[in-house]
Design goal:
Layout: H1 2-21, H2 25-50, H3 58-71, E1 89-91, H4 94-97, H5 99-122, H6 125-147, E2 148-153
Length: about 150
């Protein structure tokens, strides 16, 4: 029985790997852009609360931070080899030249978002605002400033 289970797991993993390998670069680009778009839309209301432009709403902070935390792990595999071209993108060629630095920036952003979600779950406005302040530092300072172009390229 254990051998059958092992074979099933290996076949499933192989199928998933092959499916990912067959994705067209333009599909990967659109996928990562879609995920980032949803992340950005969820960050908007939280940013307004963190900056005092909107009243703090613990339920909105919890919902949006949980969504961002769930999504933040998704786009990184779509920056694989060959996905630097194929559709208009603001992804800098530095992503594929400095992969270790890009991976580190992605991991730092994921940690900052996890901290934000944890702070939001407390319902404490001060903790939420302090944790939120770290997210733009990792997103913008770690990724966008170094790895995103101002204008799209093809």
């Amino acid at each position: 029985m254990n051998r059958i289970a092992l074979v099933v797991v290996v076949l499933a993993a192989t199928s998933a790997t092959l499916a990912m390998a067959q994705q067209k670069p333009e599909d990967e680009i659109r996928y990562r852009q879609s995920v980032m778009n949803v992340i950005g839309r969820a960050m908007g209301p939280m940013g307004a609360m963190a900056q005092g432009k909107a009243p703090f709403n613990a339920a909105v902070a919890q919902k949006n931070s949980a969504l961002v935390e769930s999504l933040m792990g998704l786009p990184w595999n779509s920056f694989g080899p060959g996905t630097d071209k194929g559709a208009p993108t603001k992804a800098s060629p530095k992503i594929w030249q400095e992969t270790a630095k890009f991976k580190e920036a992605a991991e730092n952003t994921q940690k900052a978002v996890a901290n934000l979600a944890a702070a939001a779950r407390t319902g404490d406005e001060g903790k939420f605002k302090a944790a939120f302040a770290e997210v733009p530092k990792s997103c913008n300072g770690g990724c966008h400033d170094d790895f995103r172009l101002k204008e799209a390229r093809n």
